[in-house]
Design goal:
This protein is mainly alpha-helical. It contains five helices and no strands. The longest helix is centred in the middle third of the chain and has 28 residues. The model has no long low-confidence stretch (mean pLDDT 95). Bound molecules: fe (ii) ion.
């Protein structure tokens, strides 16, 4: 479900490799959603979201360093999009997740899918 498609490649190898990793983390959440054998998925969701947050922090700082290195003009608004993403993850209401895990994972996946695809296709593509 979550994978790098042809059109997501920016042609900047380091950034593409990191985007692949982000899709892999999203795919983990998708596999978790469909796993019928795990009854309580809460700890797994927390782990995946922690991995996602930690990795996006690394990826965003690498990407921002890259944009600076090429003196990209729209770096400021791009950074804001990155901050908003991190904030969104930090704002997850874990009580709500506990209450309805299925719904929570679906919401996370929907958010991730929209964000990854739109951000890479429309925001990241601008700096290449
Ligand atoms: Fe970006």
């Amino acid at each position: 479900m979550f994978e790098m498609k042809e059109e997501y490649y920016l042609g900047v190898d380091a950034m593409d490799a990191e985007h692949i990793k982000l899709f892999e983390i999203a795919e983990k959440a998708f596999v978790l959603l469909n796993d019928q054998f795990i009854i309580d998925k809460f700890d797994y969701i927390v782990k995946i979201m922690e991995e996602l947050r930690d990795y996006t922090v690394v990826h965003f700082s690498d990407e921002e360093a890259y944009m600076e290195s090429i003196q990209y003009k729209k770096i400021f608004s791009h950074k804001i999009e990155h901050q908003e993403f991190i904030e969104k993850i930090n704002q997850i209401d874990w009580d709500e997740v506990e209450k309805d895990q299925e719904k929570a994972i679906l919401a996370i996946l929907e958010f991730l899918n929209n964000w990854l695809v739109n951000h890479i296709l429309y925001t990241d593509k601008l700096y290449v």
